Amino acid sequence: KFEFDYAAKVGADYGKPGIPKVLIVGQEGKNGHTETEKTSESIEQSNEHYRKTLYTLALLLGETKPASFSASDLKSSEELLKKFCLTNYYKCALQGNDRQACRNLPHTKEMKENCHCILEEEIKVLEPDIVIIQGKFTPEAFWNAFGKGKRIAGNRTEADDTLSLYRYDPAGKKPFYIIYSYHPCYFRAWSGELLEQFEKIIEEFLKQK
């Protein structure tokens, strides 16, 4: 069975003057993208994905770095949920007849190889300044869709999911950046050395502005 969630969800303040245009790309297409409507209280009762996404937004758009991923520390950043756009790589999420969660079912080879075409069109329409890829699911075809990217920091290969920042200069379009990062629910990536690397990658992006 398939459940569909085609449309990107765009915050009310996305694209307003003076606000960098942030597009966050998750993996699954089933959750309905309610992040742009949630408050910090409901985020605390939800999953790690929501809170790590808000933490990322605070690093990119906020004035201060949150002390932790808790709802109380994220509360002052709650308004940032209106300033970004969220989409998913897989537009149709597989689900079992017993309502088994889509994350427990494998995506097909055809989905991985072809879903990037839709994401590329979304990027062309939304014209983000920075794209955050939350996980290791984009194929090499996506990496080269906008021309050969210039690596600013880190590294990225099919066999190595090291955090990285790339700049792309597509012909006839404004340049933009992509941060290849870890999934918000990958706990090892959100503490210690890997978290420090992620924060440094964002600092490198902010220096490019």
Description:
The protein is α/β, with parallel strands linked by helices. It contains seven helices and nine strands; from the N terminus they run βββαααββααβαβββα. The chain has helices at 40-44, 48-61, 71-74, 109-114, 116-126, 140-143, 192-208, and strands at 2-4, 9-10, 22-26, 84-88, 92-94, 130-134, 150-154, 164-168, 176-181. The strands form two sheets. A seven-stranded mixed beta sheet has the order 2-4-3-6-9-8-7, with helices on both faces. The chain is globular, with a radius of gyration of 16 Å.
Short description:
The chain has seven helices and nine strands; from the N terminus they run E-E-E-H-H-H-E-E-H-H-E-H-E-E-E-H. The chain is of the alpha/beta class.
Order of the strands making up the biggest sheet = 2-4-3-6-9-8-7
- Averaged pLDDT: 80
Helix-strand pattern, N to C?
EEEHHHEEHHEHEEEH
Give the percentage of residues in beta strands: 15-25%
Poorly predicted tracts of residues: 31-41
- What is the 3D form? globular
Q: Please bin the fraction of helical residues.
A: 25-40%
Q: How would a crystallographer describe the biggest sheet? A: 7 strands, mixed
Q: What structural category do the secondary elements indicate?
A: alpha/beta
Question: End-to-end distance, in Å?
Answer: 44 Å
H/I helix tally: 7
**Measured on Cα atoms, how large is the radius of gyration?**
16 Å
Strand count: 9
